[in-house]
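ARCHIVE CARD
CATEGORY: sequence design from structure
SOURCE FIELD: tokenized fold
FIELD CONTENT:
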């Protein structure tokens, strides 16, 4: 890792998109985090911070996306010393090696989690190989997740989305993914935490009409990130209702 990861929310969206597309045009196949780290202006962690995941970014920008479980040979080419060095660097930046769980590394590290599992057998084995103590924290309960949602809801104005929760949660709070897995759904977690709102029902038809409306107000090709800035629901809602940003734009007849 050559530099601490930037906060992707503070990078100009058009600059980031232009840089990503520029690097993608120079590589064969799907753009990997390693290739972007070598040739891009920003860090892969900044991209993940802005788009929530590497594949979300590629879907948003219309870039080739690797099939689930595939690495296109990227992981097997990474030297073991590089994997361990990056894991140690992320732990040092975090200031607490116990804080570096899989969620934290995925947002701040250079390589994929699958690279570590494939190479070392498990995440804890990878941390042991890097001389970092594995995290031995009992799994958080559904009630514990609800308590965290309740606390974070008091910090956020308006509708508490998964993105807003993850941005404002404390280090001790579980990620929104963990909350959903433990409680059953994000809506149920908010309802149990007393943080639910009753906005208009977001149907696929509503999203399609919103895409048409927002697309008319932008000069260039509409990205999912830009779209989410103009509506009251999240990018995750679009993907959940319509499958992907590409499919959503096709249904709206938008380039």
């Amino acid at each position: 890792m050559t530099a601490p990861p930037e906060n992707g929310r503070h990078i100009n969206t058009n600059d980031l998109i232009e840089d990503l597309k520029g690097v993608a045009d120079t590589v064969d196949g799907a753009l990997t985090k390693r290739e972007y780290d070598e040739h891009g202006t920003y860090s892969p962690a900044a991209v993940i911070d802005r788009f929530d995941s590497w594949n979300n970014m590629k879907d948003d920008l219309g870039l080739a996306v690797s099939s689930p479980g595939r690495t296109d040979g990227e992981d097997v080419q990474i030297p073991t010393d590089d994997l361990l060095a990056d894991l140690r660097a992320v732990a040092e930046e975090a200031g607490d090696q116990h804080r570096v769980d899989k969620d934290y590394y995925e947002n701040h590290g250079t390589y994929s989690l699958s690279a570590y599992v494939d190479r070392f057998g498990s995440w804890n084995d990878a941390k042991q190989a890097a001389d970092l103590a594995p995290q031995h924290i009992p799994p958080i309960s559904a009630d514990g997740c609800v308590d965290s949602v309740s606390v974070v809801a008091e910090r956020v104005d308006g509708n508490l989305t998964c993105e807003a929760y993850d941005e404002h949660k404390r280090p001790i709070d579980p990620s929104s993914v963990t909350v959903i897995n433990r409680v059953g759904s994000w809506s149920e977690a908010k309802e149990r935490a007393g943080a639910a709102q009753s906005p208009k029902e977001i149907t696929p038809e509503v999203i399609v009409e919103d895409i048409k409306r927002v697309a008319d107000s932008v000069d260039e090709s509409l990205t999912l990130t830009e779209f989410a800035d103009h509506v009251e629901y999240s990018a995750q809602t679009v993907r959940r209702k319509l499958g992907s940003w590409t499919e959503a734009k096709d249904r709206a007849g938008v380039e």
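CARD ANNOTATION: The radius of gyration is 19 Å. Confidence is low (pLDDT under 50) at residues 1-5, 66-73.
SHELF: design records, drawer C
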